[in-house]
């Protein structure tokens, strides 16, 4: 049986770029016989948009609009805990003989370890197991931080998305009387994470990492790239997700 998590991700893949653009291009091709001008126009516009989103100059410009200006969170001593959000799993990694964290999670964990060593604040890791692997992502995150020599005080392993990360973390930390937290996640994910955690009752000190820094413009900025297309896709995912959260909470009031 297909899980709700799988259905949600399939739907997002279809309605957000690049999925929607590929679908529109195919529809355009299918309409060429019935309506040649419109069919060619639709297919052409979809492919042109796909090309644009594949350019590093476009993708970088889009995703950097999500990134907050960096302010050193360690200078703000109000935080009672460091909350690290999961960012993906490397399932059954043969070199480790088990599930382990993916690249984005590892970036977040490295920064959380750095922040912990500067602030001495306790750490909570949060992420469940929607893919049904052998271990939860939170357990994988805890194992990596242990390798870094950093203890994890709380493990939240039931959440399947950012909003659940916030809600389930609040249930744990409220018992410890903690209302202000450092939230560690990718810089492009921070607006949605801050909104979710604030709506769950936290005061948030953003601790963003993995900025998409652009050093200088080169010819490669104008050459289509799969990495750039992934960044463009992430941008639309974040914008749509934040809009959905805001709509959801507005109707809940």
Name the descriptors.
single chain, 2 domains, 9 helices, 5-stranded parallel sheet, 51% helix, alpha/beta, two-stranded antiparallel sheet, Rossmann fold, 253 residues
Give the fraction of residues assigned to helices. Answer: 40-55%
Low-pLDDT residue spans: none
Number of helices: 9
The chain-level mean pLDDT equals: 96
What do we call the CATH homologous superfamily of the largest domain? Answer: HUPs
| Number of separate domains | 2
Distance between the termini: 34 Å
Assigned CATH class of the largest domain: Alpha Beta
Label the overall shape.
globular
Which fold name fills CATH's third level, the topology of the largest domain?
A: Rossmann fold
Largest beta-sheet characterization: 5 strands, parallel
Widest sheet, order of strands: 5-4-1-6-7
* The CATH architecture of the largest domain: 3-Layer(aba) Sandwich
Order of helices and strands: HHHHEEEHEHEHEHEH
Q: In terms of structural class, how would the helical and strand content be classed?
A: alpha/beta
Q: In percent terms, what proportion of residues is strand? A: 5-15%
Radius of gyration from the CA trace? 20 Å
Tell me the number of strands.
Answer: 7
Give a description of the structure.
The protein is α/β, with parallel strands linked by helices and 253 residues long. The protein folds into two domains: 4-66 and 222-252, no CATH class; 73-209, 3-Layer(aba) Sandwich (Rossmann fold). Helix content is 51%, strand content 14%. It has helices spanning 4-15, 19-30, 36-53, 56-64, 103-119, 137-147, 162-175, 190-199, 226-252, and strands at 81-85, 89-93, 98-101, 123-126, 154-156, 180-186, 203-209. It has a five-stranded parallel sheet with strand order 5-4-1-6-7, sandwiched between helices. 35% of the residues are buried. The mean pLDDT is 96.
């Amino acid at each position: 049986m297909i899980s709700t998590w799988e259905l949600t991700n399939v739907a997002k893949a279809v309605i957000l770029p690049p999925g929607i653009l590929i679908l529109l291009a195919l529809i355009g091709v299918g309409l060429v016989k019935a309506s040649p001008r419109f069919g060619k126009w639709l297919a052409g516009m979809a492919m042109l948009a796909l090309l644009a989103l594949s350019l590093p100059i476009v993708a970088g410009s889009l995703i950097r609009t999500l990134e907050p200006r960096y302010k050193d969170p360690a200078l703000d001593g109000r935080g009672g805990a460091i909350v690290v959000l999961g960012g993906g799993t490397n399932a059954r990694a043969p070199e480790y003989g088990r599930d382990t964290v993916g690249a984005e999670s590892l970036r977040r964990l490295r920064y959380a370890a750095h922040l912990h060593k500067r602030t001495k604040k306790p750490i909570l890791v949060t992420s469940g197991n929607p893919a049904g692997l052998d271990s939860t992502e939170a357990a994988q995150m805890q194992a990596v931080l242990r390798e870094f020599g950093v203890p994890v005080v709380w493990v939240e392993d039931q959440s399947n998305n950012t909003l659940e990360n916030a809600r389930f973390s609040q249930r744990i930390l409220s018992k410890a009387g903690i209302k202000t937290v450092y939230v560690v996640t990718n810089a492009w994910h921070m607006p949605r994470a801050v909104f979710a955690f604030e709506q769950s009752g936290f005061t948030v000190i953003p601790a963003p990492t993995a900025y998409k820094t652009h050093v200088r413009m080169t010819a490669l900025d104008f050459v289509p790239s799969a990495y750039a297309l992934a960044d463009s896709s992430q941008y639309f995912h974040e914008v749509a997700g934040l809009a959905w959260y805001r709509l959801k909470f507005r109707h809940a009031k």
